[in-house]
Design a protein that fits this description.
alpha+beta, five-stranded antiparallel sheet, six-stranded antiparallel sheet, 11 strands, about 250 residues
Length: about 250
């Protein structure tokens, strides 16, 4: 039976989704009767979609050595979210000028989090490209920035999930002055998935990696779509990183 394949490449990661759709005349494929999209289930779907969108942007635009940076307010100073936004917007402008002076283009994605206990301080999760951390600290006078360098995997799904989960309460509570879950700079590449209708009569439950990639087994999903009730599959492949070959040194005769 025909089904849809959605494929997207972001950096060193290829994600594939396979799904049936009534639009393409699904016949002989049983549809689950257990379709009950509650508000809680819909919120979970929205959360997954936000993680996916953020993951695609991080994987496509950032790499090993870039930062997950946390900017907060230390000491007695505790601005409300709207005051914090003005201070952080000013920091972004100054950072953009700083990168420009260094001959670099500032790329970033940020999301606001407000603590749920105690003094409920605001802080920002920022993913940005590398520059000397001391220079960024010099333009954030409200505390010491925390830097967590990105690893060499090229797959930053866990980071995207972490940021969305940490900031979701602030976003959903209406306390955030931002209308979106996260805010990217305009110079980021935004990857777009490619869709294909496949007329094969079966799909493989165990996907196979293409040459030079490996399947992330822990992220492979075979199940029933909570939205359509039809079978659904997701898997991701990560490019195998090869070390550059060492040049052979000729021995002196």
């Amino acid at each position: 039976m025909p089904y849809l394949i959605e494929c997207i490449k972001t950096g060193r990661v290829i994600e594939t989704r396979k799904k049936y759709s009534a639009r393409y005349h699904v016949k002989g494929i049983p549809r689950s009767d257990d379709i009950n999209i509650t508000p809680e289930a819909m919120e979970k779907i929205n959360q997954i979609n936000a993680e996916r969108s953020l993951r695609w942007r991080i994987n496509e635009n950032f790499e090993e050595g870039d930062f997950h940076m946390v900017a907060g307010f230390e000491g007695e100073y505790n601005p409300d979210p709207f005051e914090a936004k003005k201070l952080f917007d000013n920091f972004i402008r100054r950072a953009r000028n700083l990168y420009r002076k260094e001959g670099l283009e500032f790329k970033y994605i940020f999301a606001m989090e407000r603590g749920q206990r105690g003094r409920r301080k605001v802080h920002y999760h920022v993913v940005c490209n590398y520059i000397d951390p001391r220079k960024l600290n010099a333009i954030w006078p409200w505390g010491r920035l925390k830097f967590f360098p990105l690893d060499d995997t090229g797959q930053y799904a866990d980071l995207a999930e972490y940021i969305i989960k940490r900031t979701s309460h602030t976003y959903k509570s209406g306390e955030s002055p931002y209308k979106k879950r996260f805010s990217p700079s305009r110079n980021l590449k935004i990857p777009e998935p490619e869709n294909e209708v496949v007329s094969r009569k079966r799909w493989l439950k165990e996907p196979k990696a293409i040459w030079g990639y490996y399947i992330e087994k822990d992220k492979t999903v075979n199940g029933i779509s909570k939205v359509t009730g039809y079978p659904y599959q997701f898997y991701s492949m990560v490019q195998i990183r090869t070390r550059p070959e060492r040049k052979k040194v000729r021995k002196r005769e």
